[in-house]
Amino acid sequence: MIANPLMAQTGPAQGASGPNAVNLSLQEAVARATGESEEVRLARAQYEIASAQISEARAQALPQINGTLGYTRTLASSFDTGGGFSLPDSLRFDPDPTQPLEERVRYLEEKVPLAALGSLSQLFSSLPFGQEHSYVAQVSGSQLLYAGGRVGAALNIARDYRSAAGYNLTEETADIMLQVKQAYYQALLARELEGISVAALEQAENFLAQEQLRLSAGQASELEVLRAEVARDNIRPQLVEARNAAELSELNLKRLVNIPLTERVNLTTPLSRPSASELADAQLNPEALVAHRTSVLAAERQVSIRERQVRIARGAYLPTVSLSMNYGRQMYPLTTFDFSGNWRTDWTVGLTAQVPIFNGGQRGSALSQARIELDRSRLQLSQLREAVQMQYEQARGEKVRASEAIAARERTVEQAQRVYDLTVLRYDQGLATQLEVSQSRLDLLQARMNYAQAITDFYIADAGVDRAATGINDAN
User: Fold this and answer.
1) d(Cα 337, Cα 341) in Å, to the nearest integer?
2) Which CATH number covers residue 412?
C-alpha cells in the first residue's frame, strides 16, 4: 500500500514558489475576494443606500421646520406717487383754539366729518407698500397628522428593503466564496496533474536509461530502446497540456482575488484526502434550509414590500390632514442697517384636509398594478423555495458521489501502483514485455489523475453544499 498516492503535493503542485511569490491559502483567497470584490462592494453599497432610505422615510412623519431671513431694497414702486398727498383748504380740519367757545363749537360741528381725511397721509405712510428698506424673519412648520397609513407603510418598506439588501449582500458574498473555492481547487488539481505528469515522465526517463544500459550490456535490443523513447515522448504532450491548464487556472484565481496577473502565486492549501468528518453526510432539514436561506428571506421581504405598496395605493383614496404654522417678524427701517425700528408680528396657524375626489382613474390603476406585483412576488417566492431545495439536494448528491469515488479511486491507485511495480519486476526477470510496462505506467498515471479529480470534485461539491445552505449556519 502506498503512503501518498498523490505524488505531486509538493513541488510543482504548489505553484510557482520563490522569494517573490505570494503565499495564498484557501482562507486567504476567500478573504481577499470577499473584501475586495467589486460585486460584494456594490451589494454593500446597496445596503448602505437602503439604510439611508429609512431615515428619509422616517422624515416624512416628523415635523418640517424652516427658517427664513431676508432683506429687500425697493428701487422703484408703483405705490410711489412722487409729490405726496395734500387736501384742499375746504376739506382741511384745522380748528383755531384762540376763537371763542361758540365759534369753536360751530367749527367742530361743521368739520368733524372731514377730520379723518387729514390723517390719510399719516395712515398710509407706515404701511409696507413701497417702503425702501424691509427685513423679514420667518419660521414655518408643518406636521402631517394623517395620510391614510401611507407614511408608516413607506417606513416599513424602507426597513424591509434594507433587510433584503442585507440578505442579498450575504448571497453575493456566498457566490464569490463559491467561485473562489472552485477556482482554488481547480488550480490545485491542475498543479497536481502537472506533478503527476512530471512523475510519470521521470519514470519513463528512468526506464529509458535502464534500457540504454541494458543495450550497452547486450541484454536489450535497439527496438526496446526505441519503444522506451516513444513511451517517454508520448508523455511530454500530457505534461505540456497540464502546465497550460495550471497556468490558466491560476490566472482565473488571480482575477477573482484581485492579484496582478503577472504576480507569482504559491498555493499553500494542499489537495489532501478529506477527513472522516468531512466525508460524513450531514443532511439538513429541508424546512430549516428553506426557512433560513438568505435568498428566501430576501424574497419574503420583497413580498412584504409589495403588500405595503398595496396599502399605499389603497391609502390614496383616503384624505390627508396636516397642520401648518407660520411665525414672522417684519421691519421697515429708514436705512439699510437700521435695526432700531419696530418689528411687526405675523403669526398664523392652519389645519388643512385634502380629500381626493377624482384623478382620471390613476388611483385605481395604481392599486391594480400593486396587487399584480404582489401576486407575482408570491409566485416567485414559491419557485425560489423549490429551487433552493433542489440546489441543496443536487450539491449533496454530488458530494456523496464524490466521497464514494474517492474510496474507489484510492483503491485503484493502490492496485495500479502494485501492478506497475510487479510488471517492472517481471520485465527485469524477462517475464514481461516492454509494452506491458508502458501500459501499466499509463494505467498508474490515469489512476492518480482520477484520484486527484475525485478529491477535487468532493471539495467543490462540499463548497456547493455550503453555498446552498447559506444563512442556515448563522441561524443555528
Assistant:
1) 11
2) 1.20.1600.10
